[in-house]
Write a structure and sequence with these properties.
The structure is a single chain. By secondary structure, this protein is an alpha/beta fold. The chain has a single domain (5-279), classed as Metal-dependent hydrolases (TIM Barrel, Alpha-Beta Barrel). The protein has 11 helices and 10 strands. The protein has helices at residues 21-26, 41-47, 71-80, 98-108, 118-121, 131-139, 166-172, 188-197, 212-224, 242-250, 266-273, and strands at 5-12, 51-57, 60-61, 67-68, 85-90, 113-116, 144-147, 178-181, 201-204, 231-232. The strands form 2 sheets. An 8-stranded parallel beta sheet has the order 1-2-5-6-7-8-9-10. Helix 7 links the parallel strand 7 and strand 8 (178-181). The longest helix has 13 residues, at 212-224. The model has no long low-confidence stretch (mean pLDDT 95). Keywords: Lyase. Residues 60-279 form the Amidohydrolase-related domain. GO terms for molecular function: carboxy-lyase activity; hydrolase activity. InterPro entries: ACMSD (IPR032465), Amidohydro-rel (IPR006680), Metal_Hydrolase (IPR032466).
Length: 289
């Protein structure tokens, strides 16, 4: 039986024309095994058959991993499959028109959240260019998902992927919902302790199951810090699929069978699989309503 989940909160959308030569140059550093490179709306709809909802966003990582999409693509996918997709905008604060693009994405295209990769755009979370972004999102009750953790891309300053930099922003903007993608790997301890301290910071575990020892340790640590209930399910499709991501979570304890090592509880496993961001990330404003 195929493992299921309620929502995949981390799905990348782009068409073939958005993939640049750099993407193929770097591909050897991505996880081993066969990966799908089809991430257009129709391919996503098929890939997301085993989830009720999928949060989708494009990437603007042209100079980091060689993908440069646009918010219109995301909005068109939501329009085509409104019962499956919820769209997030992407903000790149290096662009001179980034705030105009953000206003357009939210106010004209109707996207419901924002994605940002500080490590991929080379912009620190404390950069003044991000202040109007934070202010706008907080004012309009719009969640912000951020890539937190390392990457295989050479042109991506690794220091900018550390979740420790999130806390000052969370304190300054206490009503801004912030989601730390990939649980800050390999600095997952930082992500967990920040999420534990700050009520407006959440975690998601996309693209982690294929490093099972690291994944196991971060889930055990999250339980020890009583933060496991703040973790949401995601895949990072097309870099990982729904079934393999769900199976990797369900079977996380197999690697410690026959040992005295602690087990990740069934309660934690099920709470992640059936996590519902639409009840949490928007304060009193469910985007599905």
């Amino acid at each position: 039986m195929t493992a299921r989940a309620y929502c995949d909160c981390h799905v990348n959308i782009y068409n073939e024309e958005h993939i640049l030569p750099l993407y193929w140059t770097l591909h050897g550093r991505v996880r081993k095994g066969e990966l799908s490179h089809q991430s257009d709306a129709d391919s996503l709809y098929t890939a997301m058959a085993d989830v009720e909802k999928a949060i989708i966003f494009t990437l603007r990582y042209a100079d980091a991993i060689g993908v440069e999409g646009n918010d219109e693509l995301t909005a068109a996918a939501v329009k085509k499959y409104p019962d499956k997709f919820v769209g997030f905008a992407y903000v790149d604060p290096r662009r001179p028109d980034y705030m105009d693009m953000l206003h357009h994405a939210i106010e004209d295209l109707g996207l419901k959240g924002v994605k940002f990769g500080p490590i991929y755009n080379g912009v620190h979370l404390s950069d003044p260019r991000l202040e109007p972004v934070y202010e706008y999102l907080q004012k309009h009750n719009i969640p912000l998902t951020m890539h937190m953790g390392t990457t295989y891309a050479r042109n991506a300053p690794v220091e900018l992927g550390r979740a420790i930099h999130v806390e000052p922003v969370a304190l300054k903007y206490p009503d801004l919902t912030m989601i730390l993608a990939h649980m800050g790997h390999p600095w997952y301890d930082e992500a967990i302790v920040v999420a534990r301290k700050q009520p407006n910071v959440w975690l998601e575990q996309s693209a982690l199951f294929y490093r099972p020892w690291q994944y196991y340790n971060m889930l055990v640590l999250a339980e020890e810090y009583r933060t496991a209930d703040k973790i949401f399910f995601g895949t990072d499709f097309p870099f990982a699929g729904v079934a393999e991501s769900a199976d990797g979570l369900i079977n996380i304890n197999k690697q410690v069978e026959g040992t005295n090592l602690p087990r990740v509880s069934e309660e934690t496993i099920q709470s992640i699989l059936w996590s519902n961001p639409f009840k949490t990330w928007w304060k009193g404003d469910n985007p599905l309503a």
